[in-house]
Write a structure and sequence with these properties.
Order of helices and strands: EEEEEEEEEHEEEHEEHEHE
Distance between the termini: 27 Å
Strand order of the largest sheet: 7-4-10-2-3-9-8
Domain FAD-binding FR-type: 12-134
Radius of gyration: 18 Å
GO molecular function: oxidoreductase activity
Pfam family, one: SIP
Largest sheet: 7 strands, antiparallel
CATH topology of the largest domain: Elongation Factor Tu (Ef-tu), domain 3
CATH superfamily of the largest domain: Translation factors
Number of strands: 16
Organism: Nocardiopsis alba
Number of helices: 4
Protein name: SIP domain-containing protein
Structural class: mainly beta
Amino acid sequence: MTHERLLEMYPLKRRVLEVAEVERVTPRMIRVHLEGPDLEGLRSDHFADHVKLWFPNEDGDHVLPIVEDDRCLNFRAEGVVFRDYTVRALDTEAGRLSIDFVAHDHGPAGRWAIDAEPGQRLGVLGPRGTAWITGEFDHHVLLVDETALPAAARYIEELPEDAEVHAFFEVADAAEEQELKAPKNARITWLHRNGAEPGSTDLLLEAFRSLELPEGDGFVYAAGEAGTLKPIRRLLKERGFVRNETCEVDGYWRRGTSNLDHHEEDED
């Protein structure tokens, strides 16, 4: 079957949403549920869609996005703090947007999530658009760390009940394993760093290297720390996968870099 990557753009709209509920999914994963009248019209049609969340800065000032003529005018203004986050869930009937945060205190988003309380506000831009690969696949392979776990979890939740799935999720330790809704044939393997620094292991690479791929037309989604994905990209090519047709690789973050633009692909 032939596959291709399609892209649909959405109008850019400024939204200000309010925290309705904060949930500790695991010791290091926080789910924040956002609500508000501005949520009307927000779309998130595919698993990797993301929004830009605008946070208060270190001085306590909260600069919110200014949008005119389908563009944001103050991306680079003084005091602006924003980060990209995957849409974990969008319930249009309930009017609720859910975002998962990795709890850490070395960045504005993680610090905000740790202290988040109902009633607090966030500026929201996006999703600016949505992308998807056409056609059906016989099996699905997911290779992600905890930063991309929200996207991967949504991916498998939206698959048919009889889909064949091989998912490898790298997390800090056993306490970070989550209960996920998954197809009956899904094989989910949790890979524990057990004290190793995030982005410093080859757990995902070795898991994919040791996986005997099923027969048929397969799709691979790999996402996480950009440096760890380089050898995975090379292995994907060796095993016959084609970017934007039968695989997607997304560097969500890079060690030593803040607010990485994950649209910029690393060169192998």
